[in-house]
Specification:
Number of strands: 20
Oligomer: single chain
Low-confidence stretches: none
Order of helices and strands: EHEEEEEEHHEHEHEEEEHEEEEHHEEHEH
Shape: elongated
Strand order of the largest sheet: 2-7-5-6-3-4
Helix content: 25-40%
Number of helices: 10
Largest sheet: 6 strands, mixed
Length: about 375
Amino acid sequence: MARLGDICEILDSKRVPITATERQPGPYPYYGANGVQDYVADYIFDDDLVLLAEDGGNFGSKDKPIAYRVSGKCWVNNHAHVLKPKEGLNVDYLCYSLMFYDVTGLVNGATRQKLTQADMRKMEIPLPSLDEQRKIAAVLDKVSDLIAKRRQQLDKLDELVQARFVEMFGDPISNPHKWELQSLSNICKDIYGGGTPSKSHPEYFEGSIPWVSPKDMKSDIIMDSIDHITEEAVENSSTKMVPKGAVLMVIRSGILKHTLPVAIAAVELTVNQDMKAFIVGENVTAKFLMYYFRTIEADVLSGVRSVTADNIDFKEFQKRMVILPPIELQNRFDAFVEQTEKTKTTISKSLEKLETLKKALMQEYFG
């Protein structure tokens, strides 16, 4: 084992933070604790380096790294330690060894944890021969490349479905095909939001009924949730049971600044107060409505207001006029989506195996 302070040059003294208002736009990446923050007109480093979060990093996360590799001209602020490997240490190996390093006992701070330079210098990593380091880095590079390709494939399939929607139905806002228009509230049998059972009854949150919130909206299909509630919680609160096949949407959350999460309920469930459930009527399919929402995402997000929270003005939103192509055409689109979902499932299983393999290798190499 070797200490970072002994095997790396610590270049923290060369860092220079620049406030957002003082940054001059340019071609050079401006790095912080967790990656690129901006692009600026000048640079202070031009080397192969590893940046390790000092404060505001993903400390304790099993999925988000606390270190990353940079190469070439760049600028680094004071939220990331700058490490340059000395002779005998491979830069890629160094990065992998630190990505998910357990900093328990090293970081301090209640609301914003910090890894001081003094504690960072004490961090130890295995130090095999340089040839062995290169071999380890090459194996991890190969697995990482495969993971990246699988994720790209999934993204491309999502883009394909979205493109197919526009190809079949046209732009839903300009409506070039002159489809029939009906309000969102009219094409749904029901639309309702969720609620939060009383916190004074902790037993309400020890059930088996999925209670979906924005943090669960990470896929097209929702089959479960992080939090669960009991039947008694449903009976004694404003939350309702949402039927299988309903379209779920986030209407209040900070993530609405960037994306409009929508999905379809694969099981009966409940949702919290930041969500809405759309129970579709006979003239619209759930898949069509979900991709309709995704196609108008930019238009919807342009109306998101931020006062105390980012939210959609739902009273106005449910009045939105929705294109209503023939149900036969919607069913053809659904069939295309289902076939694409089968391909995505196969790729997702491969991705899951690769991610498991990478975690196992990281554990084997670095403990």
